[in-house]
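Hi everyone, sorry if this is the wrong subforum. Our group has a chain we'd like a structural model of before ordering constructs, and none of us has done structure prediction before. Sequence below.
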Amino acid sequence: MITPTLKAVERVMRLLGYSYHGNWQRKAARHIIENERCIVQFARQSGKSHTLGLCCVTALLSGLTVTIAMPTLTQSQRIIFRNISQLMRRVEGKFAGRLKRTRDTESECIWNNGAQLRALSSNEASQKEGYTSDWVVIDEAHNAQPSLLAMFNPYITQARRRGTAKIILNGIGGHPSSCIEQMKDRGFSALHITPDEIVRDNSTYEPVFIEAKSILSDEEWRQHYECLPVLEGSRYIFPMIQKCIDLPDYGMKSRFYFGIDVGRTSDNTVVSVVESRGDRANLIAEKRMTGNDFLEQAAMVHRFIDTYLYRPEDVAIEVNRLGVGLYDILQNRMYGIKPVNMNYQIKQSSIFELQRMIRERKLGISDERAYKELSELTYEVRENYKYIYAHSDSLSGLIIARCASQQAVMV
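Answer:
Right subforum, don't worry. Here is the predicted structure as tokens:
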């Protein structure tokens, strides 16, 4: 094994036909390569994850193991795993069969040079022992807590002895208790690049930033582009929400996912229906029920879902407290539905994912009642910097439907 260098990263870039868009990307690559514990923060849409991906590809070509760490596999951090895997596939084509995959799944790739790439959630990390890694990467680290890093830190113990260990936190501004902000005071070397610096390097980014600033709130611009910490206060969860988006035609039919949020005595039981095609989706319908016992609710839920072409594994139901009873009944009607044990971590990470999809115009809300409720929904950042979300049946149903679209059962 050899330690990757900046020159090696640039050779990989030339091999793949890439070049720096500006000096800020070279600074980011150098920062990642030269620091054992590093933080990289600069504006969205300016090549942050791509630069990180090229550095990881260089590490894999050196025979190292790279682990992508995340709170849950529902998060957008999984994107960086796919990007690195796709870049490596292009590299494989350049080596005429000398570099081959010996294992290739949605969360793990292994090559014949000994390199390994993994995507692991905190839940998987706590259950699987014996894993080691040279690099641990937390993409979107503003959405993670310091406890996530503590969980993955033992992975690089052996790499520290070899001198190949590296921890990389990549993201934008987070609340002061987030992993990316906390580690600035714990010995991590931080690189913070402003939009003005990017524009000075490459003026073609100026209209991109002008458009973003015109549609984002001041707080969102501050966090997502200036990469400054989140401030206390109340704000909308989905300020850029859209009523409907066009689903691309990939030569495939739509797939429907269903989220069942089980109501309490003063609450509705809600079934949310999400139509998905490729990486885009619309929340197209909701059914709300109240004042019925579980046998009646189960019959109503089954009749409603049965109007769609569905698979039981595409149906997820919350099983906290009362939800277990409805889940047991529905299992007899739709065997194979997914139980979701909703907690704060799943809720917060799912909201971050939904915000990303809305921001990238990949999620629309077609149902009128859900659109009204979600567009007016707010959250607060408290003094302890914890996010407090207003209650919403539509949000709960949408989150559980998103869980249904993931392979792992969220229990």
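For your construct planning: Residues 6-224 form a domain with the Rossmann fold fold (CATH 3.40.50.300). The radius of gyration is 22 Å.
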